[in-house]
């Protein structure tokens, strides 16, 4: 190497070191700004303003497009920092706010504790006979939580809308008779007081995940809430919906993944298994998986339930009906009692229950 080249090379190394020093200085200063501006951080508008300031004073020979590109790339990390600050906000649902697991105790059942929970029952409560038949079989198998819809969110107004309060009364009677914890969906704040008399856990369905008035209203009760993930909700939207309930004073909240909408047609929804470890990691709330609505079919329930529990879910929900073909909603995905017993045995044999 010629002496001249060597000299230039070491000059360049020196410039690089200075640049590195300056970049670190830039990072420290940007960090201070992010801290002062807290939630807002450095915005796109701030970046634009800085870049404009630089291009208007650019002495060259680097052209302005390159200056813009380089500085935009550089500032990108601070925009990301701003995002981190947002997720670092101490949300009440967040593990950063509360590191230990939230355990919800109802009667003798613990959600989010050391053992898994099975929630089973029909899609809709159709009659006392129907519910009692399922509940007795489930109780006999050792299941402690009974589900069943009385207020049904149906896609078509012509479909069965549920038995309403009558259904809730049946649920309470049956649950008292067999001794089970109950869970049923409410769709509006006006249903809270009545439902509170008959059920142990309020379910907020996928279609109402962002019904903010409902979230606020259940937040003002002390009653446990099972919040279902919205049809197309991101995990961020999901935990922020849960945050509404905690923010309004109720920390007895459980999250349930129930599949999301994708292009896939072989299942009713796509079960997002990654949601389980992410929600467990990000929040301190119990996390469950509804394998029936996630798949919309019976033949893969066991595999999906095993996957959910292996991924860290605190429990599973499954729809069980004495005679699924004759059911008034979700006929294709509900399993009968024999099928439930096989499913249940499969999970027990694998050591999940
Ligand atoms: C249900 O569990 O009864 C139900 C309607 O499910 P989702 O809200 O998840 O569709
Ligand atoms: Mn259903």
Automatic annotation (TrEMBL):
Transferase in keyword set: yes
Pfam name, any one: CM_2
InterPro entries for the chain: Aldolase_TIM, Class-I_DAHP_synthase, CM_dom_sf, CM_II_prokaryot, DAHP1/KDSA, DAHP_syn_2
Keywords: Transferase
Transferase keyword on record: yes
Lineage: superkingdom: Bacteria
Residue ranges of domain Chorismate mutase in the record: 9-85
SMART domains with a match to the protein in the record: CM_2
Protein's recorded name: Bifunctional 3-deoxy-7-phosphoheptulonate synthase/chorismate mutase
Species of origin: Paenibacillus cisolokensis
Gene symbol of the encoding locus: aroA_3
